[in-house]
Specification:
This protein is an alpha/beta fold and 268 residues long. The protein contains eight helices and seven strands; from the N terminus they run E-H-E-H-E-H-E-H-E-H-E-H-H-E-H. It has a seven-stranded parallel beta sheet with strand order 3-2-1-4-5-6-7, with helices on both faces. Helix 3 runs parallel beside helix 4. It is globular, with a radius of gyration of 18 Å. The structure holds NADP nicotinamide-adenine-dinucleotide phosphate. NADP nicotinamide-adenine-dinucleotide phosphate binds next to helix 1, strand 2, helix 4 and helix 6.
């Protein structure tokens, strides 16, 4: 299957979990795939396996997405070796190490979690979007979560990070208006990965979302079928990409908004 042949994807967090599945699935659909993660050897092994399994061209670039110089160098290398990025997937990120209320969290780890999702996506967009705009072509997928819009008593850094990431998507979409470059929040469902295995709320879970469903959704975005949903949240498992493709979302559906208390609410 080479439905996306010729397109270049850049996937952060490609050494593990969802990022690893996306690298494999997009390469299997004909994309050239670059992966970023901090762990050089694990990432290199993962991307080499993707290339071997699919015959696609891959590139592993070890980088910390929260480090500006590393991100700039990584994107420069991807562009020089593979060409312009058509699809940027901001997937890399951490979860709160301890399941505790906000005030009991370790301050450094709390901030690392926020930075991994928010600063990481910001730096990647900062490095990639200008090139997309030059070609008036490109799509950005920010990996969201149920916790982008729902509160839990623990995982406060993760909730802050994922909500902030949604606002990055909306800000991108607003600034990109008039261009053909689009940006999406994609909540992946609940995938069996090292991250979810470490979370007590998922202990004993058996009905995981199949990772191939995430790949199918991202492939639909890469084909441009969901461009009308730019700036909004879509959810694997709950949404059918074929149904969304036939709809034009109106107003503020699937965006972050304050609900008014009634028709006279001055903040409505
Ligand atoms: P995972 O298996 O723990 O993978 C996380 C990936 O991010 C790894 O490749 C990791 O590699 C990389 N990473 C973390 N910090 C990084 C940094 N500073 N710089 C570069 N790479 C970094 O987790 P996952 O479950 O696949 O999650 C992937 C994404 O999906 C995350 O954004 C997560 O919040 C989101 N998500 C997951 C689920 C789910 O059900 N699994 C649900 C909702 C949302 P290194 O450690 O080598 O850097």
């Amino acid at each position: 299957m080479a439905e996306l042949a010729g397109q270049v994807a850049l996937v952060t967090g490609a050494s593990s979990g969802i990022g690893r599945h996306l690298a494999q699935g997009l390469a299997g659909r004909g994309m050239v795939v670059a992966g970023i993660a901090r762990s050089g050897d694990i990432l290199a092994g993962a991307m080499a396996k993707v290339a071997k399994d699919t015959g696609a061209r891959t590139l592993a670039v070890s980088a910390d997405v929260t480090d500006r110089a590393s991100v700039e160098q990584a994107v420069a290398r991807v562009t020089a070796e593979l060409g312009n990025v058509d699809l940027l997937i901001n997937n890399a990120g951490l979860i709160d190490a301890a399941e505790v209320p906000l005030w009991e969290a370790d301050p450094d780890q709390w901030w690392d979690v926020v930075a991994s999702h928010v600063k990481g996506a910001f730096l990647l967009c900062r490095a990639v979007v200008p090139w997309m705009l030059l070609r008036n072509q490109g799509r950005i997928v920010n990996i969201a979560s149920g916790q982008s819009v729902r509160v839990t008593p623990v995982y406060s850094a993760y909730g802050v990070a994922k909500t902030g990431l949604m606002r990055i998507t909306e800000a991108l979409d607003a600034s990109l208006e008039g261009s053909d470059v689009t940006a999406f929040d994609l909540a992946p469902g609940v995938i069996d990965t090292p991250m979810t295995r470490a979370m007590s709320i998922w202990q004993g879970k058996t009905d995981w979302t199949p990772p191939e469903k995430v790949v199918e959704f991202v492939a639909a975005i890469a084909r441009g079928e969901l461009d009308r949903w730019s700036g909004r949240l879509v959810r694997v498992g709950a949404d059918d990409p074929a149904v969304l493709a036939g709809m034009t979302p109106e107003d503020d559906v699937r965006r972050l908004r304050l609900r008014p208390y009634g028709p006279d609410d001055p903040l409505g």
